[in-house]
Write a structure and sequence with these properties.
By secondary structure, the protein is mainly β. Helix content is 14%, strand content 34%. The chain starts with 13 loop residues before the first helix and ends with a strand.
Length: 169
C-alpha cells in the first residue's frame, strides 16, 4: 500500500486526489513500491543497488543537510557490494530530503515534487526530515559506477543540493 503524508490535503482537491490515487502513480520514475516501507522493499533491486541489511553495514557515514542547499559530504566513495548506513541529519530550518537514484529518476521525481511539494518520503532509498531531525538510509551498492543523491524539495535541487556516490570494484 502506498503511503504518502501531505501537510495540506485540501489544497489538492478531492477529485484530483482520487484521480491521482486511481492512477497508482504517486511519483514518477522507476523507484518501485511507492512511498512507504514494506517487506517487498527488501528484494527491490535497482540499477544502483538495493536496500541494505543493517546487520551487514560495516560503515556509517553521517550526511548533513543544511539550508545553504548542500550536503556534507557531497562526494562519497563505496565499494561494489558494500552496505552503508547513512545517518542523515537535517541541521537546517527547512525540511530536506536525501534521495538516492539515477540522474533520470531524480529529475523525474523532482517534476512530481514540483506538483506535490508537501510530499514526504520514507523509503529504503530516500528519507524526508524536518528541521533538527535525523534518520537512516541503509543501502547496498551492488554495481560499480556513479549513484546520485539529491534533495528534491522545490528549489533545493536547482540550488545545488546534490551529491554522488562513486562505487568502485
Amino acid at each position: 500500500m502506498t503511503s504518502i503524508k501531505f501537510r495540506s490535503l485540501p489544497a489538492l482537491g478531492l477529485a484530483a486526489l482520487l484521480a491521482f490515487s486511481a492512477s497508482g502513480s504517486w511519483a514518477a520514475g522507476t523507484h518501485a513500491g511507492g512511498h512507504g516501507h514494506s517487506d517487498h522493499h527488501a528484494s527491490m533491486e535497482t540499477p544502483y543497488g538495493k536496500p541494505g541489511d543493517a546487520a551487514k553495514a560495516r560503515r556509517t557515514i553521517t550526511v548533513e543537510m543544511s539550508d545553504n542547499m548542500r550536503f556534507t559530504p557531497s562526494e562519497i566513495k563505496a565499494k561494489k557490494g558494500e552496505t552503508i548506513r547513512f545517518v542523515i541529519r537535517n541541521s537546517g530550518q527547512l525540511r530536506h530530503e536525501f534521495s538516492l537514484g539515477t540522474q533520470q529518476e531524480l529529475e523525474e521525481h523532482y517534476e512530481q515534487m514540483k506538483k506535490f511539494p508537501d510530499m514526504v518520503h520514507d523509503e529504503p532509498n530516500k528519507i524526508s526530515l524536518e528541521p533538527g531531525q535525523q534518520g537512516e538510509v541503509i543501502w547496498q551498492f551492488t554495481r560499480s559506477g556513479k549513484v546520485d543523491f539529491a534533495c528534491l524539495h522545490v528549489g533545493h535541487y536547482e540550488a545545488g543540493m546534490k551529491g554522488q556516490v562513486s562505487v568502485g570494484k
